[in-house]
Amino acid sequence: MAEPTTRPPVQDWATDFDHFDPEFVADPYPIFDDLRARCPVAHTDRYGGMEVLTTWADVAEAAHDPATFSSRRILVNEVPTSERGFPLPPINNDPPDHTGPRRAMLPFFNPVATKRWEQPIRDICARLLDGLEGRVECDLAVDYAQCVPGEITALMLGVPAEDAPTFRAWMHDLLEVGPTDTEVLRETTHVMVDYMRGLVATRRAGGGRSDGDGPGVGGGPEDLVTFLLGQEVDGVLLDDEELVSMLFLLLIAGIDTTWSAIGSSLLHLAAHPEDRRRLAADPSLIPTATEELLRAYAPVFVARVAAQDTELGGCPVDAGAWVMLAFNAANRDPAVFEDAEVVRIDREQNRHAAFGLGVHRCLGSNLARLEMNVAIEAWLARFPEFSLADPEAVTFSAGQVRGPRRIPARLG
Ligand code: HEM
Fold first, then answer.
1. How many angstroms separate the alpha carbon of residue 75 from the centre of ligand 1?
2. What pLDDT score does 310 carry?
3. Which of 100, 210, 256, 283 is the most buried (most CB within 10 A)?
4. pLDDT band (50, 70, 90) for residue 210
5. What is the number of domains present in the chain?
């Protein structure tokens, strides 16, 4: 069951699409399959006007054309698209302004630097699993999946793990409540900006981490804040406002996304014993399975704003309209993937769009994959046998990051 809504229910998905509708929140895939077959560019007057792209070809075309489809706003909400919003570089920057901030962040997230997080992730998973020893039931989303990215993000920022639940509460307010409640959106943004300003000021003053007890980049003990303090764009060190916006983005980008991906994977394995047993018996298949689970349950879909009147898939798009790039629909397009609706955990040809397409492709994909692979492997090693305790009680998040938020499960 999704959270109750006071918004009018959708009558026709082709002309009145709403990703906050409880039917979509519970299961978007039949809706996307139907739209792809009969009206691949769906429309809605909600949110001031939005087109929703459901085929791989249309999603890829828009993602690769940032001059026409701007990233200046990517989270759909009730604030008119003519307003700028709080810009989060590089995700809200169009080329050429996108390149500098992306380059500044890249070294922290490259494959070698990311490897340094493997042991901390293993330690977090082991502690969580120790806490579940002896239990016969638990919630796969609440007791395990959500804890891993929250705690890693805290570690990465160099703040206490006790801050992780606050991050998750902010993400809920920002991503699930904020899009349809502008007051909550503004208040949460304000609180998060204050937190990040405090963090930057502390690091600038030489306080906090950097004490040698955490993994860093290039062999040093740097946390992300300390790392970014040394980064330049166009030969100039990042200023406080740029740092605050980048840290704000990394918090949004890293937590609910990865929680959703780990949760959807465990939900799939709980509901598909043959896949669960196969992976438990052969953990070397986990990275391949992870890609398939990302394809099939891609947690993130983002929007663009049309910079001018244009056309997509034969449909007119007005300047200022939201254009939704449904990566989760593109990933199930039968024109691109054989048996697109079937989850095949040994699928080999799998160039999916779960991490986006084009210049904004996910910067944290190495870290996300590592968290997923380690979390799934550690879980299966400890609990090879588990199943859904009550399939009806599984709930999903609403909004543009989709994943299970309650998965009651039986252990053993
Ligand atoms: C399974 C987990 C994740 C998924 C599915 C995911 C998905 C995405 C997608 C679809 C985009 C493209 C957005 C666009 O086109 O506008 C993106 C961008 C981005 N992601 Fe992720 N993400 C995940 C985890 C992470 C993590 C762990 C981090 C870092 C801590 C991260 C950092 C970023 C950043 C910084 C961008 C912006 C890149 C740019 O604009 O150049 N993501 N992500």
1. 13
2. 97
3. 256
4. very low
5. 1
Sign of CA dihedral 83, 15, 67, 180: positive
Q: Is the CB of 70 under 6 A from ligand 1?
A: no
For residue 273, give the CATH number of its domain: 1.10.630.10
Angle between helices 240-254 and 164-171 (to 10 degrees): 80
Tell me the one-letter amino acid at 78.
E
| d(C-alpha 260, C-alpha 256), whole Å | 6
The whole-number pLDDT of residue 214 equals: 45
196 found inside a domain: yes
User: Whole-model pTM above 0.85?
Assistant: yes
Range of the domain at 105: 82-301+339-411
- Report the separation in Å between the CA atom of 354 and the middle of ligand 1, taken as the mean of its atom positions: 9
Over the chain, what is the mean pLDDT?
Answer: 93
Ligand 1 pocket, 327 CB below 6 A?
yes
Beta carbon of 362 within 6 Å of any ligand 1 atom: yes
Span 59-77, mean pLDDT?
A: 97
Q: Per-residue pLDDT tens for 229-243?
A: 999 999 999 999 999
Alpha carbon of 251 to ligand 1 centroid (Å): 11
Local confidence band at 208 (pLDDT 50, 70, 90 cut-offs): low
Any atom of ligand 1 within 6 Å of the Cβ of 24: no
Ligand 1 atom 17 nearest Cα? 362
Q: Is residue 130 part of a domain?
A: yes
- Which pair of structure tokens corresponds to residue 318? 């007005």
Pocket test for ligand 1, best of 302, 362, 371 (most atoms within 8 A of CB): 362
Distances (CA, A) of 122 to 52, 69, 317, 371, 375: 39, 40, 47, 9, 8
Q: Residues of the chain with pLDDT > 70: what percent?
A: 95
Residue 234 in any domain: the answer is yes
d(CA 223, CA 214): 7
Assess whether the C-beta atom of 209 lies below 6 angstroms from ligand 1.
no
Let me know if residue 139 belongs to a domain.
Answer: yes
